[in-house]
Amino acid sequence: MKSKLGLGGHSFYSSLANEPVPSEQEQLNIVQACLDSGVDWFDTTYAPERIALGRCLQKLGRREEARVAVWNFFTDSTGQSETPAFVRLEEHHLAVMLEELKTDYVDLLVVHAHGDREGLKRELALAESWLRRGQIKGIGIGMCREEHLKELSPDSHVTTVFAPCNYFHQESLSLFEEAKRRGIGTFALSPFQRGWKLEQNGSEPAKTSELLLRWLTSQPHVDQVIVSMRRTEWIDTNRRAEQQGPLTEEQLAVLQGWQ
Ligand SMILES: NC(=O)c1ccc[n+]([C@@H]2O[C@H](COP(=O)([O-])OP(=O)(O)OC[C@H]3O[C@@H](n4cnc5c(N)ncnc54)[C@H](OP(=O)(O)O)[C@@H]3O)[C@@H](O)[C@H]2O)c1
Q: Which of 43, 76, 148, 223 minimizes the number of CB atoms within 10 Å of its CB?
C-alpha cells in the first residue's frame, strides 16, 4: 500500500544529522526498505544527496519505482560550505542534477521560493520548458508561503508546494488547505523538526515520533510527509505509526501538553 511518507535526502548527509552518515550498504538497505514498503517519494536537497540516491537506485535497478524530487541547491564552487544556500535556477542546472542522479528525468523539480517576484517567475518559466520537454514531470515551490500561491498566474504549471510543518509549527496548514483548493499537491517537511522535538518531557523518542507522525499524516490537506531516516528500522517503525491513523482525544491531549 502506498504511504504518505517519503524519504528525506538529509538521511544521506552527515552535516544535518546527529548520527554519522549511513554506510553505502545501509543507504541501499534504506532505499530498498522504502520501496518495499510503499514509501516511494525521495526528496533531495544537496548534491551529495542526489549522488547517493542515484547510486542506490541504479544499484537496485529500481529507478522506475521511485519518485524523485530535486531542489535548486548545488555544490558550492568555493568548497567552503557543506550546506550552501539555494541558487537561482539556470538552464545548465538540470543536466547537472540528472547526471548526479544517473537518470534522464526527475519527477518533481522544486524551485526554492524567495521575495523577487519577477526572478521567481523566470525560474518557473524555465522549469516549464523542461516540463514540456518531458525532462521533469512536475514543478514544486519549496519553502512556499501563501503569498507565493496568490502570485501564481491562473495558467501556472506548478503542481506541488513544499513547506516545513509539524505539530509545533502548524503555520503551513493554511497554505496546504489553499493549495488543495487550487488542485495543487502538498508536501510537509521535517515532522520532528530535525529530530529536535523527539525528546519531550516524560516521553520516549519512540512514543513521541509515533504521535507526531500520526498527527501529521492524518492532516487532510497533507499529501506527503518527508522524514529523514538514517536507520533501516525507522522505515518499518514509521510505517506502522502511519497505519495506526488519527490520534485519539487522549493522545491529542498528550501532544497539547508538550506545547
Ligand atoms: N530543502 C530544504 O530547505 C529542506 C528543509 C527542511 C527539510 N527538508 C526535507 O525534509 C526532510 C526531513 O526533515 P529533517 O531532516 O529536518 O528532519 P525530521 O525528518 O523532522 O527528523 C529527522 C530525525 O528524526 C529521526 N527519526 C526518524 N524516525 C524516527 C523514529 N521512528 N524514532 C526516532 N527517531 C526517528 C532521525 O533519526 P536518525 O538520524 O537516526 O535517522 C533524524 O534524526 C529532509 O531530509 C529534507 O529532505 C528540506
A: 76
Q: How confident is the model at residue 218 (pLDDT cuts 50, 70, 90)?
A: very high
* pLDDT above 60: residue 18: no
Asked whether the beta carbons of 22 and 241 are under 8 A apart, the reply is no
Residue of 78 and 113 predicted with greater confidence: 113
Question: Any residues with CB less than 8 A from the CB of 46 and at least 6 apart, and which?
Answer: 9, 13, 73, 82, 83, 84
- Give the Cα separation of 173 and 70 in Å (integer): 23
Strands 108-112 vs 67-71: parallel, antiparallel or unpaired: parallel
Q: Which domain holds residue 122?
A: 5-258
- 61: domain CATH number is 3.20.20.100
Which of 245-249's residues contact partners 24+ apart within 8 Å by CB, and which partners? Answer: 245/214, 245/218, 246/214, 246/218, 247/211, 247/214, 247/215, 247/218
Give the predicted TM-score (pTM) of the model. Answer: 0.96
DSSP letter at 147 equals: H
Q: 252: number of CA atoms within 13 Å, CB side? A: 8
**Overall number of domains in the chain:** 1
* Ligand 1 site, residue 172, Cβ cutoff 6 A: no
pLDDT at residue 11 in the model: 85
Q: Is the CB of 72 under 6 A from ligand 1?
A: no
**Substitution candidate for ligand 1 out of 167, 190, 193, 211 with most atoms within 8 A of CB:** 190
Q: Could you give the 3-state DSSP secondary structure of residue 233?
A: helix
Among 189, 210, 217, 232, residue to substitute to test ligand 1 (most atoms within 8 Å of Cβ): 189
13 or 207, which is more confident: 207
